[in-house]
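Quick look at the format.
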Amino acid sequence: MSRNLLLISTSTTYGTGYLEHAQEEIKALLQGKSSILFIPYARPGGISHQDYTAKAREAFEKWGISLSGVHEYDDPVKAVKEAEAVFIGGGNTFVLLRQLYQNKLVDALQERAAKGMPYIGTSAGTNVAGRTIGTTNDMPIVHVKTFDALQLVPFNINPHFLDPDPNSTHMGETRDTRIAEFHHHNRQPVVGLREGSMLRVQGDKMQLLGPHSARVFLQSEKPMEFKPTDDLNFLLDVY
């Protein structure tokens, strides 16, 4: 599989503009490309497809990359099949996945990504790159027929991963607790991506990028911390 993926936890970090914290990695991924297809289906805050696309277009045009929205095409499947690269932005993962299935884009995205088309995801766009969306933080505000996602990688991802606050008196469950509950019913590993972090996948190799470690959860094992210099390739060859 000739995967060429950049899976980003979030589109904006504290003190930076839209995608600015990942701009060098995005430029490297898109080297030699002049255009990218944006899929705005996740609609953060209910923003329109048009307004969301305009926001993404402004960022990519600064880097010399023209951007079009998939909703601007009469045939979205054809648009994906002919795209130089694809970017799926954040928002609500359930809304996003439902629209991907409704517009029959799941198979097309899987086929293109398997052949090396550059794929960028942020937040919900990173969630749907995993095996399922079962570890999203989003509320299920719409019904989806399946949790099965694009399966560009064989594990799940939890973007916006938060560590427990040791000074908090809140007694509710932590993110670790929720992922442990997930593993009572599901085998696949889960990668907790902290803000500012991203996964770069090239074929059968994967690297953690950004300033933070990632928290990796395996079924029936204690969570593990992996630094950007550590080997994460085993996660691409599981189950």
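Next, a different chain entirely:
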Amino acid sequence: MLPSSSGHHSATRAIDPLPLRLIKRAVLILFGPLYFLFVAFVPLICAQRKGFRGWYWRLVKRSCSRLLWLLSIRAEMRPEEKAALAADTDSIIVVNHRSHLDGFTLMHVVPDAKWFTFAAKSEFWNSRLLRTGFDGAGLVPINRESGSLAMQTLTNAVKGMAARRSVVLFPEGTRAKTRSLGEFKAGAILVARETGRTITPIIIHDSDQLLPRGKYLPRSGKIRVQALPTFVCDLTVSVDQDLARLRALMMAAFEQ
């Protein structure tokens, strides 16, 4: 069964009174661009300092938390799931994708003890400003002109990562266009098999109710994030069978 309409209504119930929401949006409009520029330019000044990456990582996470607060959006995850993520090692994180809010939400709810990063198109590294910031945040550049090259680049990056650091992959490849999960691509399974890492599946609920496709102003409300038990690839079965098992596990949680 699909998520019920009553669950959707609960997710989109405003968490702040209207006057407070208006004040927060005004603060975001007035000071948000300046704060964004500060976060973007910091790596140009401080990237060579000792311990920069850890400090900058926390700055980016706090920036995402502040953005959600100013948008009157509350993102929640159960304490026991946060504790499991904090102790998680040697994994790849796999997340469903429903909204532009998903990345900010993930940055907010995942505990600081769990380091993770995203893959991004290598073209972004052509800009010095973006290159320095992306390198500071530990993003992985992926050349998408060749699928095999992109997969090899990603695999090599994961092999070189510290145990407590994980790359985040969206197996649907893009934001889902239906109320259900989209079809999964095999990239996460292939990388996990090649590197020997496990997969940590995460489900984001209701972010598309607050910011659907084609909309630019998010609604106030609540996003629920659910960390599922560790998924271990079965090397005795085919990649497609492993992929189907992973999707079934995430679908069961998504439809609850």
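The radius of gyration is 19 Å.

See the schema section for token definitions.
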